[in-house]
Design brief:
Helices cover 44% and strands 13% of the residues. The chain has six helices and four strands. Helix 1 packs parallel to helix 3. Keywords: Membrane, Transmembrane, Transmembrane helix.
Length: 225
């Protein structure tokens, strides 16, 4: 082989390496952009719902985003169908290094199906937020103690969304495969955690307030359910 051919093969090899690196970096960048879109859309809708109840807006937190993403991957890998059973260890108080108090964990997914019929990442952020908030229809503000004692699982996602003392928000998201096709699982984290239960239920009375009289009507995702 002539020296010229050796140089040519080296250049081709280097070109292929650079091309593969660019493809890899582009994929990672696109995934990050999609995830950021879901996080921002979920944050905006969370704060829209919170404002209806007089709760201050949440702020994105990078550590919560990271823990939420770890839990989304955990549910994909260890829980059948990517369902949220709150078994992820990373968010529990005392296990993670970032938060001294508990983190409120909520979650959900998108309809499972073929790629062309999946929700977009923005719809994942908005849709899962709405699925949590729509539990407001199960919550009786004048008799909430009965709701919390008899059917807590049908209201505690809503109460976490509007919980006044929660200040920070994070979201994780990933895909999973099943016999029905491709689905997505999302985990939404809040800090400090809501749903603090005491004998007198005082925390719920202070943190979960009725809709304000001048609050805007529900729009957007409400129309899709």
């Amino acid at each position: 082989m002539t020296p010229e051919k050796k140089v040519l093969f080296v250049k081709i090899g280097l070109g292929l390496i650079v091309a593969s690196m660019l493809v890899g970096y582009t994929y990672v960048w696109v995934q990050w952009v999609d995830l950021e879109a879901a996080r921002e859309s979920a944050l905006i809708l969370n704060n829209y719902y919170r404002a209806r109840h007089g709760s201050a807006p949440l702020t994105r937190n990078a550590d919560l985003d990271m823990i939420a993403q770890m839990c989304a991957l955990y549910y994909r890998d260890y829980v059948p169908g990517g369902s949220i059973d709150h078994s992820c260890p990373y968010w529990r108080s005392g296990y993670n290094f970032y938060f001294s108090e508990g983190i409120g964990e909520c979650g959900g997914g998108s309809p499972t199906g073929s790629p062309e019929h999946l929700w977009t990442n923005i719809e994942i952020g908005e849709g899962n937020t709405w699925m949590l908030y729509k539990e407001i229809y199960n919550y009786n503000f004048s008799n909430f103690k009965t709701d919390l004692e008899t059917h807590p699982r049908t209201v505690l996602h809503f109460t976490q969304v509007v919980w006044r003392e929660s200040k920070y928000f994070g979201l994780g998201m990933t895909t999973y495969r099943s016999k029905k096709g491709i689905g997505m699982v999302a985990t939404l984290f809040y800090y400090p955690s809501g749903n603090l239960i005491t004998d007198d239920w005082a925390h719920f009375l202070m943190n979960v307030r009725p809709v304000l009289k001048d609050a805007p009507a529900l729009e957007g995702w409400k129309k899709q359910y």
